[in-house]
Amino acid sequence: MINLEKRPRIAVHKFSSCDGCQLAFLNLGGDLLELTKRVEIMHFLEAGLDDPEAKVDIAFVEGSLSTQDEIERIHKVRESSRYMITIGACATAGGLQALRNLDNQHEQWRDAIYAKPEFIKTLNHARPIADEVRVDFELWGCPINSRQLLAAVNSLLFGVPPIDDRDKVCLECKRQQRVCVMVTEDKPCLGPVTRTGCGALCPSFGRDCYGCYGPADNPNTASLSGRFAGLGLLPGAIARRFLLINSAAPAFHDAGLIARSSDTGGESHD
Ligand code: SF4
Ligand code: SF4
Ligand code: SF4
């Protein structure tokens, strides 16, 4: 555990990502100022602090491993940190950029998107951080929730392991007494198989969960796929529900490929 006799040092490292999960830190606002009384932030480029090689007690890592340089860099970050927490879908499951893992079309897509593809040095696959180095705790979501982030840091500062909440979004949805959008509006909600942590954000606003927190514990994706088919979704649409932000998380990946394997390419309702 972390030595509390000295002010613990933390760092926030960016890999392939959109920076949205780092914003969850900045969105802490006054709580972040309070936190800086108890921790020393050594490296956090988005907040203007630049010391990537500093030895720290906790390293937060945002982003997937998408380049050879990142694979080399993550080992350095691991060596210089006692505790590593990955933050966000990119870091925990490869993120949206892992869609390129599905079809081995990395080079075609790169050439179609970039005006000068010869300057783009990316790998064929985007991978989660835990594929390469030991990760002590994962915070899922796209983006992560600032409240969860603060709770995890506070747990570590109090010398206890952070709570790993793997329940399904549905449980939180029911605790908040939200009306189920799948039952009442036939919306294809991924809440029954998605890990909670967001406070059932989307159903709270009358929309279906699209799985940004990744798979919950024991997700029954086969049953939910059957339910989606009952709502009128064709296999291609069901596959796209699973193969989105967390397409490389095994439970969603497998469910998406199973649906896709029976896709005959017909028009479908998303
Ligand atoms: S998980 Fe989402 S919000 Fe976070 S860095 Fe990746 S794309 Fe951005
Ligand atoms: S709206 Fe979605 S998350 Fe909420 S109970 Fe219904 S299926 Fe579950
Ligand atoms: S309800 Fe689903 S998609 Fe919406 S924020 Fe929560 S986990 Fe993400």
TrEMBL record:
Stored Gene3D superfamilies: NADH:ubiquinone oxidoreductase-like, 20kDa subunit (3.40.50.700)
Keywords carried by this UniProt record: 3Fe-4S, Iron, Iron-sulfur, Metal-binding, Oxidoreductase
Domain NADH:ubiquinone oxidoreductase-like 20kDa subunit: 18-155
Superkingdom classification of source: Bacteria
SUPFAM superfamilies cross-referenced by the UniProt entry: HydA/Nqo6-like
Cofactor(s) annotated in UniProt: [3Fe-4S] cluster
The organism of origin for this protein: Marinobacterium zhoushanense
This protein's name: Sulfhydrogenase subunit delta
